[in-house]
Amino acid sequence: MSGLQQNMPFMMPQYREGIPRVIQPWIYLLIATTFQFSGGVYMGSLHQMMGAMDMMMEDVLMCLYCNLAGMAIYFPILLRMKFRFTNKTLLTAAATGVLLCNLAVPYITFKPLLWLVCFFSGMCKIQGTFECMSNIQLWMTPKRDFTVFFPILNAVILGSMQLSDLLCVHFIHHYHWTCMHWFMCGVMLLNLIFIRLCIKDFRFMRKFPLFGIDWAGSALWAALLVQIAFFFTYGDYYDWFNSKVMRILLMTILCTLCMVVRRMTTIRHPYIEPKMWTYRRLVPVLIVITIAEAFLVTEHVLEEIFLSEIMHYEETVSVKLDWGTLTGVWLGCVFCYWWAHIKRFNYLRLIGIGFFSIIIYLVLMYFSISTEIHISRLYLPVIFRGFAYAIMSITFLICLHELVSFPHFFQSLSILQMLHMVVGGVLGAAAYKQGMSYYVPDNISRYSGMFDRIELSKSHLHLEEQLSVFTEQVMQISLKQIYGWTIYACILTFLLLLMWDSPVRKQLKKIPIWKDVRRQIKNSFWRTSHRIKPTEDVG
């Protein structure tokens, strides 16, 4: 039956008559790209948003992490939504949600409400993307091969991230920071009009009710993830455990974790099942992706400090580096496709190539820290960074699908994205900020002896100018020290990875057909005494 389906021409029956079949999947690919362009906040407008809405950097970063948390938490529900509602309903709801969130964000000043809106925006974003990409999956890979699907998926997602940042800075330079929100509202409105006129309600199988979903468990996982993000994002601001707020929050995190574990082990169908954690080598894979994300987050901390505080680049200048990152991302996707699909090489070596690319990026940045360089010298490091990010994102998704059976794939994917998009980033950012908090005062105390009356009298610069030059030099030394320690840690991880046995087989499993997936989900919620006949799932 599956071989017969592979030989059939690709069709999208949800389209109304009159839409040429050849452009139907391309339209869905474009809609998926528009969803990936959206966000609760846009980091290109970070400083403008801080000034206009009277926020700290930590407040805006918390909005970003809430948006990412909403995407990560929602993964286990995606299939259930697909089997319950039609494609038109889900796309309409996702586009409407993104539109309303973009309308509301610039006018919300109450931070918890703003974080909640960003969280909801992330859920709508991943729902819309999944609905589009899952419907054109067979168009991209008729043989249901993840080594084809994941490189294309990440080319769309990671490429859209860079292009969205470029577009946002363009709007800021020529217009206003809120124009990006209004632009996305217009794009989502066009999506809604197209869905209303060109898409019809179509079910490829019988409706499957939303029973057995652990909604309370999903809320606990979301609370735990947001609390962890808050703890590490605001840790430096509250001076960590010297603050009562951080001590109370740590106790709250531990209590929430205990509630999550208790619910996961006591109810029949928890949001994340305990069996998911028992798969061989799954936990090491999750640890490695968390470490890799902690290394890559230097982009948002150390690299940002270098560009803004030392080079004094405006957003319109520093955003040019996104073109280098975009180039690296697409090169990484093509390389993964060649390595995993065409050559069928070992996946562990591909992870090693990703870590080696991170090392090259860190080393190049280490030797580029100077006020005398041209911006063109930074293109090569960011190309390696984008190359490494694409390799890591694709390879770990492929490994995850091979390690975990399909009924637990989306649950493990949710945990992977929690660590990849939120936990790894906030851990790394907190470590780098703490390092800067230590090394900058330490270097000031070490090198401030250079300033005395004789040296000051020899200089033709004013005191303020000398202090400015001295501060920049101290920042350069501090950044090099932290980059150096990060390089040592990355090399050590790379060497440990070389000694690790391959976590997955060389041959990859195929994506199961949707009817088989529905049958597995239905069997998992049915009484064990009841046996479903194959004819019950027809239609």
Structure commentary:
Mean pLDDT is 84; it is low at 1-5, 502-508 and 527-539. It is globular and about 80 Å long. It is built from 22 helices and no strands. Helix 4 packs parallel to helix 7 and helix 17 (347-368) packs antiparallel against helix 18. It has helices at residues 2-7, 24-37, 46-52, 57-73, 78-84, 87-104, 111-135, 137-140, 146-174, 179-198, 215-233, 244-266, 282-296, 302-310, 315-318, 321-342, 347-368, 379-403, 409-447, 453-458, 463-498, 514-525. By secondary structure, it is mainly α.
Average pLDDT, rounded to a whole number, is: 84
Strand-residue fraction? under 5%
Order of helices and strands: HHHHHHHHHHHHHHHHHHHHHH
Helix content: over 70%
Structure summary, number of beta strands? 0
The Rg value, from CA coordinates, equals 25 Å
Report low-confidence residues grouped into runs of 5 or more: 1-5, 502-508, 527-539
How far the N terminus sits from the C terminus, by CA atoms, comes to 15 Å
Treating each run of at least 4 consecutive H or I residues as one helix, how many helices? 22
How many strands, what sense, and barrel or not for the largest sheet?
none
Tell me the overall shape.
globular
By secondary-structure content and strand pairing, the structural class works out as mainly alpha
